[in-house]
Amino acid sequence: MAIERIQEELRPRFVQFFAPLQAPGGMPAGWKILDIETDQGVSLVFTGPHSTFTIELERRDAARACLARTVHFNVYYSVVDRLAPERRTYDADERVLFECVVACIAAREGELALTDVTDWSARVRVREIEVSRMLAPESPRVYYMNAYVGCMIGCSFCYASHRGETSRWLEGLPRTRWGQWADVKINAAEVLRRECDNLEPGIVRMSPIITDPYQPIERKYAITRQALEVLLEKGFIPVILTRSSLILRDIELLARFPQAAVGFSIPTDDDAIRAAVEPGAESIEARLDTLRQLHDAGISTYAMLQPMLPLDPERYVEMLAPLVHAIDIRPLCEVPRLEETLRQIGRPGPLDPGWEEATYKTIRAAFEARGVVVNPENEPWAYLAPPGHRR
Ligand code: SF4
């Protein structure tokens, strides 16, 4: 496999693209840009009078619901409001800001000279990328980082695939199959060490959505392991999410952190369904076994039930509750793709919204009755079990 070595180029380009917003009068008073990220499409994080507001750009696709569309982009938003985390709509201030951003995109997107080429026959492609930053801020003392961009586990429902494809399209690369490419942040440890020296220590979420930190090429590159070594040295706290038992390679390193949490995505208790939807990932049994070993090593463990595939709620809670301190339960995403996959194996799809709601309520109540923290998503510190905690 030929490996290309390149410099990160997309992020500086989009910092420049959105420069008009930073000019006097470019956006409403009281707001400022906290971050611009280009690993997963383009994300702009703003802080304002009472909220952190994220606006995301994805390649235009009329079939995907979004808040605004320009000639080339679907535009989305999300709000993190610590005073009202359940809030899912935006207020008048945020709306004005959103409209400023959409106007900026519409005015400048013609300069991007975007092309549209697809190559489904393309073979696996790995690039080594020299990046200029690793830690992206999420909220005070909470950061996230991606050791890689792209994921060779290649789950069929992967929400990240559209975002990853958008970034490659913006680079002028042809569209290829999800699971067939990955970018390796080859200088991650060096950049991370420099950043940690200048930031207040806190939680570092390792790879929220665009990649799995223990995907197969981690065996060769060990970027995640190198990052953990830096975080340990600098007093930061990793909160990892994976589907791979390769993390056991680092169990001794993880156990040396005063605090660390490791989560496993476990979307069903039925391995036949898992095999259809996530053919490149490990079995449910292997994930449970890995969770058990991490838990026994004294590391905080959690599970992520996303997407909630068909499952037996009682069995699911029974197998996981003894192994985890917390669980995140999220709704289905990419429903049409999932339904098609389930149809192909002759299983009823999760078509009925009533099923999803009823299962969610049952599972949530059962985990809470077993003392498991449910949905710490808006409070990342809750992924960490109190010192000395053992289930
Ligand atoms: S392991 Fe995660 S990032 Fe990788 S393809 Fe599956 S869902 Fe996407």
Tell me what you see in this structure.
This protein has helices at 10-17, 19-22, 92-108, 160-170, 188-197, 218-221, 223-234, 251-255, 271-277, 284-296, 313-320, 335-344, 353-369, and strands at residues 3-7, 32-37, 42-47, 52-59, 68-69, 73-80, 125-130, 136-139, 142-145, 148-149, 181-185, 203-206, 237-242, 261-265, 300-305, 326-329, 373-374. By secondary structure, it is of the alpha/beta class. The protein folds into two domains: 3-112, TATA-Binding Protein (2-Layer Sandwich), CATH 3.30.310; 125-383, TIM Barrel, CATH 3.20.20.70. The strands form three sheets. The protein has an eight-stranded mixed β-sheet, covered by helices on one side. The longest helix is centred in the N-terminal third of the chain and has 17 residues, at 92-108. The model is unreliable at 81-85 (pLDDT under 50). Iron/sulfur cluster is lined by residues 151, 153-155, 158, 160, 211-212, 243, 281.
